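Quick question: what would this complex look like in 3D?
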Amino acid sequence: MARATAAPIAASSGATARRPRSLWQEYLPAVAVFVAAIGLWEAFVFGFNIQFYLLPAPHVIVQTFRDNAAVLLEVGLYTFREALAGYFLGCGLGVMAAMASSRSPMFADLVLPYAIASASVPIIALAPLAIVWFGVAQGSKIAIVTLMTFFPTFIGTLRGLLSVPPQSLELMRSLAAGEGQTFAKLRLPASLPYMFNAFKVGTTLSMIGAVVSEFFGGPERSLGVYISTKAALFRTREAWAAILIACALGLSFYLVVVLVERLVMPWHASTRKT
Amino acid sequence: MAKRWGWVSLFVLVALVGAACGQRQGAQPVTQTAERAKVRVQLKWVTQAQFAGYYAAKEKGFYDQESLDVTIQPGGPDIVPEQVVAGGGAEFGLDWLPSLLSARDQGVPLVNIAQIFTYSGMRQLSHKDSGVQTPADWKGKKVAVWFGGNEFALLATLEKYKLDKDKDVTLVKQPFDMNLLLKREVVSASAMTYNEYKQVLDGGWKAEDIVVIDFNKEGTAMLEDGIFSKADWLQDAKNKAVAARFLRATLKGWEFCRDNAGECVDIVLKQSPTLGKDHQAWMMAEINKLIWGPPQPTTPVGKMDPEAFKRTADIALKFGVIKKPAEAASYTHEIFDAATKK
Amino acid sequence: MAGLNGPIIDVHDVDKAFGRGAAVTHALERVSLAIQSGEFVSIIGPSGCGKSTLLRIVGDLIEPSGGAIHVKGKTPHQARLDRDYGIVFQTPVLYEWRTVLRNVELPLEVMGRPRAEWQGRAQAMLQLMGLGAFQHHYPWQLSGGMQQRVAIARALVFNPSILLMDEPFGALDELTRERLNLELLNIWSQTSATVLFVTHSISEAVFLSSRVMVMSPRPGRIERTVTIDLPRPRMAHTRATSRFFELVTRVREGLREDPAVAAGRDAVVEDA
């Protein structure tokens, strides 16, 4: 009589219980850490008398942000639009390339080396080239961001499409499902978690890509040019305020994707509430 | 209760210790063995003939004669010489005057001890096909400049021609190559006579097709390469003497390069062969013009001309480089006088 | 449909070899069996004897190396395309992004039936199995036993002639397994499906089946067939009858005929 009980025999409900977490409980630790970090920063700057041009105190940055809010928002949104455009392009191409690769190993062999190469070339080398090819305005930045978000999306989605458990495929086969049906009803939904992972990674990459590529040339009213110009002029406070905007935009972008993920995949382990 | 006071007192203690330690930060004593002094100079850009005087002074033993061990630190795209000197990474730095004034305006205690370049080498170039002959023709077009502290001559020129920098032109941050101009994506791009101008010629444009707008002629030029140090470092008499020795040898180096341009090119190439002899030779010739003219400088080379200073300072104030008017204390003749007295 | 008078599943001298050359494994060697319509047949044997392979060959999920198989008078391939069977695996294989109801609807969806039909039949099936209350739950919210019941509901929702079951209760504990055995028999009595059931458990095989086929260790062959004449419907107390014990013993003997089994090489679950 050796069989161990694998799961409780569900007499009534059959649902596995899990302690519900309120929104407050979920985010309190992060907020607390944030507040503590800011406090530590202020104390550090004050205690060690750090010169502002090395590291401004948080309250100075906030003040500077308020004083320059209009400009910062303008340049921030300008760059954010570039990031967004490149993000959708890169993710879109990545997903399509992955779908094609999952159906055709030959296509996969063709694309994979280039995909890997695309992720290996540093922005520093690509940005000036992009400017030559796509112009100094948004085109080159969108191109860089597209390139940066393509690879993680491609690899993640491909992995998801190919990571289907064999028995799930056998089930489809037993029902005489066609390739198209198997793809739409099995492979695609099964790869959603992988795709969203890549989408989340892409949000931060896109902001970084847009800002950094602007260091190498871009319109004056953009975030990257703003940061580099202010930094060169010793306007460290403004530069930091701009960094603050960049962080805020990147974070918001990420959170939006997380929200979409929760809506699209309410069933997934990572987004379950109870 | 006691526990809380314990934490508070600990915090106060840490803050006080930190403040005490903080006072000493940045003031780097110069190491001296016998009479010899070790100093570092932070260049504004990568090794090239623009800094030939320093390399010559080192190579020909002028620094050595002044009992100085000089380390020449090349710069680059993300190196701000003011930050390096202020942070204690070098005793001397080279940069354009507006950048120095901006740093001072923000409270960084740096002081110009010598103005090496008399004239500005910055130009705005256009192709004659684009129809640009004067800055007024920039209206409605895309104009490129590097930003990062060198855009103010351009801004002053825009103002002179009554062009609104946001509405009448589109300003673009220029990468460190001339492709934007060569590809006609912008109608006008910044160029240094000693560097980018040659790149444009190498890119296939003929000198007679290039329209050159000269800020010197427009009266909006700003002073460029000058040597600066930290004010509190200079307060020490020993350091003042070291600075004088450094300047003396440096000026000797520049004089040498004026009279032996070819040899100086070779000295620079020895340090960095990247740009090639052709380019460095061009650069050396142009740099010499910026220092020695023609036209003949009205003040001795190295001594800050108060009028030229004022011109630059006024433009800086006008265009928001600095928020308060620049003080005369931004530069000093003291070191120059000490260097040239003997 | 041809073959109404003949066996619904007819397997004749089937071989299956995996690999090639020196690394070849003979999973099945000249296996023959015939199952009549409406029967409940179990195949029991030690691990690795090829019983799951045999099941998959019948279901056209694996190609045989030799021999002939007819399912409802057709090739397995045709039978699969005609959706003549439903299959239940050892793990529920439910799609986690679908609710219980949507999982059960899957076969009807794939078959292209009208939407209204899906919901109706799926719901009815779930009600039949006592899972109606959970139709909008996700699989992760259900216990292992319940998930397997959903899998059975899915396999039967489109009323296939044949039900292939590959150790469906193997991952569950003894108590759940016995309960589900009863439930399976209950459901089966309400359909006219023929069941081919692969299992490790002697008592399960005897309890459920009309016939138990004992398979030898690799390469698999049908060693003996034990006819189970226990009356239907079978209840919990059937397990306590002496006839039950006799039949279990007969099956066990069939397994022990092979000295390798007697040496206890492969574990076969026995009731205590």
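Answer marked as accepted. Chain A touches chain B at residues 43-44, 46-54, 127-128, 131-132, 135-137, 214, 216-220, 222, 225, 228-229, 231-236 (CB under 8 Å).
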